[in-house]
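Problem: given the chain below (212 residues), write out its structure.
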Amino acid sequence: MFSMLMQSYVVTLQIFALTLLGSIPLGVLVALGRLSKFKPLAWLMGLYISVLRGTPLMLQMFAVFFLPYYAFGIQTGNNYKFTACLIAFIINYSAYFAEIYRSGIQSMPRGQYEAAQVLGYSRSQTFFHIILPQVIKRILPAMGNEIITLVKDTSLAFCIGVAEMFTTGRALVASQRTMVPFAIAALIYWVTCIIIEFALHRVEKRLDYYHD
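Solution.
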């Protein structure tokens, strides 16, 4: 029982890690587009954020999973389940991260930009070397909350047949008629969240040299 849960836990960790790997940089691009002075781009990114934050992640997974067939008549195999899951998770979380980035960037005092301009920094140098490190410190608690939520949201992958830990736990409960697999799975989720919280706390401590 435990070994089966741990094998499927690897899939849970893959969904978690690959979602972060894709959604964190995509969220930066969406946030910058949302803040763009080019109004059509800003409006489009605003719509992207609104739709993805305003509809359920499970519904988005179904949409990504069934879209190739119903829109283009493309038959997809079992391997596409995991790909569809990742696409849905990445675009969903990029929208949430984008709003966190946007609020962090807009919270920076105007004087920071003016001082950088006086020192001869370009706009990109100002953003990446001066603004972004301070923004990261400000948004880390909010980002941490979303990252913890992602650990638990990986269980939604069961809805399109991805065999992550919750899917395996549910199958074991049904076959063995005991709640023990759910208890073990809950413990694994909890320990994972504790480890991530500890790591985020260490990162926050390392960023203490940036003072508001």
